[in-house]
């Protein structure tokens, strides 16, 4: 029996809808396998800005820090065209959590289920054998650049004598690159032992340094094969021959974009989970933040239409990486695959012959499966 504390940050838009299902699945695991999960639910994003004036309050942040893991939904819903003005932005919550907790490695597994080959925009023959793990650098790069004029500020729009200009800075230290590249090589040892490092070394200095570091770390891992790939070519190859990839490591913004693209291999962005990890240990593993890769999806929010699978699979990653509950994590993943194998689909994955259900029903079926599988 394991005892663990989980802070749940449902957030905005579809965030609360999918998180409720992920939490129900975790509760089923708790009961079925005899664990004890203490859950603290807190506001984050627009929800927190409205109630507390900031995207994440200090007290919420503190509770997160006292937990074994954070389960995050999504933030940032505004009706289309609405102006955010100059106030706090919901995304600031994510930036703070990632930076201050040192979550530098964002794992985004992409493994299309065979039963969903028909729902993907790729032909089935291209999906066969695809099983990728993105390791996205998460706490540096363009998201956290440094302006010489305003230390700590990553970007600005400014009035210059020749007109208005905007600046974003892309800065990586050797240490920031090395820790995430090292994580990728270590994970590759547990998989197919292949790393693709993605950069833009034909243009960016940060990518030239990135390649140097990859060479050095690769030399310490002689059993792992590796390659460098330019990001534009990678974007193409991902949908030409996805099965050629195993572990893909890349900087923050490239990883953000490539994983939304890669989600289409699985049929929907609603399918992809993620784990954001640093170095702090918990009783069972590593302290981490777990969230689906999608956003608050304002276009479908509040209509029981969101696919909860990315959130549920994020819960499985939480069990595995932060709580050390490997068997339970696998049980959740198997439950998801079984329910999808039965033809159950949320509207984003609807195909002829499938049974289309809402977010809640999809979650309920996965939860039932977790309970019955252990019986
Ligand atoms: P989005 O991911 O919210 O939505 C993109 C498209 O995918 C939409 O058509 C949406 O309906 C669909 N979609 C997303 N999740 C789905 C799900 N679970 N099931 C079915 N369909 C789903 O991206 P966006 O519209 O570009 O951004 C909306 C807001 O979300 C923005 O404010 C953005 O900053 C924020 N965002 C937050 C996160 C996060 O919380 N980690 C991630 C991405 C975007
Ligand atoms: C993600 C999101 C965030 C990012 C946004 C909301 C800041 O797109 O988690 O993938 O770009 O990292
Ligand atoms: Mn993204």
TrEMBL record:
Pathway the protein acts in: Amino-acid biosynthesis; L-leucine biosynthesis; L-leucine from 3-methyl-2-oxobutanoate: step 3/4
Keyword Oxidoreductase belongs to the record: yes
Enzyme Commission number(s) of this protein: 1.1.1.85
Positions bound to Mg(2+): 232, 256, 260
Known catalytic reactions: (2R,3S)-3-isopropylmalate + NAD(+) = 4-methyl-2-oxopentanoate + CO2 + NADH
Cofactor: Mg(2+); Mn(2+)
Subcellular location: Cytoplasm
Record site: Important for catalysis: 143, 200
SUPFAM superfamilies: Isocitrate/Isopropylmalate dehydrogenase-like
Keywords: Amino-acid biosynthesis, Branched-chain amino acid biosynthesis, Cytoplasm, Leucine biosynthesis, Magnesium, Manganese, Metal-binding, NAD, Oxidoreductase
Cofactor comment: Binds 1 Mg(2+) or Mn(2+) ion per subunit.
HAMAP family: LeuB_type1 (MF_01033)
The protein's name in its UniProt record: 3-isopropylmalate dehydrogenase
Gene behind this protein: leuB
């Amino acid at each position: 029996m394991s005892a663990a504390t989980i802070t749940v940050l449902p957030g905005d838009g579809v965030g609360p809808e999918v998180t409720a299902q992920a939490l129900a699945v975790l509760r089923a695991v708790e009961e079925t396998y005899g664990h004890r999960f203490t859950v603290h639910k807190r506001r984050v994003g627009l929800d927190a800005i409205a109630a507390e004036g900031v995207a994440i309050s200090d007290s919420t942040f503190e509770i997160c820090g006292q937990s074994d893991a954070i389960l995050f939904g999504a933030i940032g819903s505004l009706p289309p065209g609405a102006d955010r003005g100059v106030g706090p932005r919901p995304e600031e919550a994510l930036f703070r959590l990632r930076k201050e907790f040192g979550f530098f490695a964002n794992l985004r597994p992409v493994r299309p289920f065979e039963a969903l080959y028909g729902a993907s925009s790729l032909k089935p023959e291209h999906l066969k054998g695809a099983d990728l793990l993105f390791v996205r650098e998460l706490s540096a790069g363009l998201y956290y650049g440094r302006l010489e004029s305003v230390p700590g500020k990553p970007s600005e729009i400014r009035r210059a004598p020749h007109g208005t200009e905007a600046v974003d800075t892309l800065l990586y230290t050797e240490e920031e690159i090395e820790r995430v590249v090292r994580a990728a090589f270590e994970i590759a040892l547990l998989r197919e032992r292949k790393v693709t490092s993605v950069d833009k070394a034909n243009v960016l200095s940060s990518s030239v340094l990135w390649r140097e570091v990859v060479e050095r770390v690769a030399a310490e891992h002689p059993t792992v094969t590796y390659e460098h790939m330019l990001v534009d070519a990678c974007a193409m190859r991902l949908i030409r021959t996805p099965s050629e990839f195993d572990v893909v490591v890349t900087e923050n913004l490239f990883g953000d974009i490539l994983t939304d693209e890669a989600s289409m291999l699985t049929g929907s962005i609603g399918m992809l989970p993620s784990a954001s990890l640093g170095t702090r240990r918990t009783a069972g593993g590593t302290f981490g933040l777990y969230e689906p890769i999608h956003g608050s999806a304002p276009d479908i929010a509040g209509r029981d239409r969101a696919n909860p699978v990315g959130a549920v699979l994020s819960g499985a990653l939480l069990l595995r990486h932060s709580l050390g509950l490997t068997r339970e994590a696998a049980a959740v993943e198997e439950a998801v695959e079984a329910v999808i194998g039965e033809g159950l689909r949320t509207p984003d994955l609807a195909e002829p012959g499938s049974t289309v259900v809402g977010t809640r029903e999809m979650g309920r079926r996965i939860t039932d499966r977790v309970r019955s599988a252990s019986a």
